[in-house]
Specification:
mainly alpha, about 130 residues, elongated, two-stranded antiparallel sheet
Amino acid sequence: MQQFQVPQFIEVEDKIFGPLTTKQFFYLVGGGGLCFLYWFFFQAWFAVILIIPTAGISVALAFLKINGRPFIYMVASFISYTSSPKRFLWQKVQKPFTPTADQAQTQMTLPKLTENKLNDLAWSLDIMEKIKR
């Protein structure tokens, strides 16, 4: 019988670029590139205003985990929630009941209960109750 090694730690990403995974590396390189472009093309005071949030977002994308899940999943969930239509069930309009053809037919074929039949039924129930005792 041939033995195979079962991979372990399959949820841990490989560290390709030193202590960083591929995703972390590209988040940081992308954020750093944007910060460099801001510094190169804008005046210093305006570039700093743009660089601070850009650097914060790129660092958060690379390293921040919320409930053990990467920050990018929270961003994707936020975007899908805000862009999807909302349906509130408590605003649902009740449609009036319209019986189908089968339901209408069964309602027509039910026998009518006359007073005589009702008395017979009540009498038989009383008798059956006394017999069971």
